[in-house]
Amino acid sequence: MKTATVRQLRNQYTEVLGWVASGEEVAISQRGKVIARLVPETDAGVRKVDWSASAAARMDKSTLPALTAEESVRLVAESRGAY
After folding, report:
1. With bands split at pLDDT 50, 70 and 90, how would you rate the model's confidence at 25?
2. pLDDT tens profile 35-63
3. Are 41 and 21 in contact (CB under 8 A)?
4. Phi-psi region for residue 62, left (φ > 0), alpha (ψ -120 to 50) or beta?
5. What 3-state DSSP class applies to 41?
6. Is 22 exposed, middle or buried (0-12, 13-18, 19+ CB in 10 A)?
7. Residue 23 resides in a domain
8. Which pLDDT score is estimated for 16?
9. Radius of gyration of the chain, Cα coordinates, nearest whole angstrom
10. Is the N or the C terminus of the chain less surrounded, counting Cβ atoms within 10 Å?
């Protein structure tokens, strides 16, 4: 469980809500005392994906060649829909 202060919740709410959206329970504290908890909504249809079991996570990435600058630029452009 993560903890956020009332001030942090007010000033960085998108970050704190991101924690909740990713399934994290967040305790909200004021003057050192927990006054509330933000708990993610449970939905039977939504499950977390265990990426550690994926082929990409198990792959030995040290054998992959390094990208050139041009290849990197092209990849970023493709991800943004430029190509």
Report:
1. very high
2. 999 999 877 666 777 888 888 888 888 88
3. no
4. alpha
5. coil
6. exposed
7. yes
8. 93
9. 20
10. C
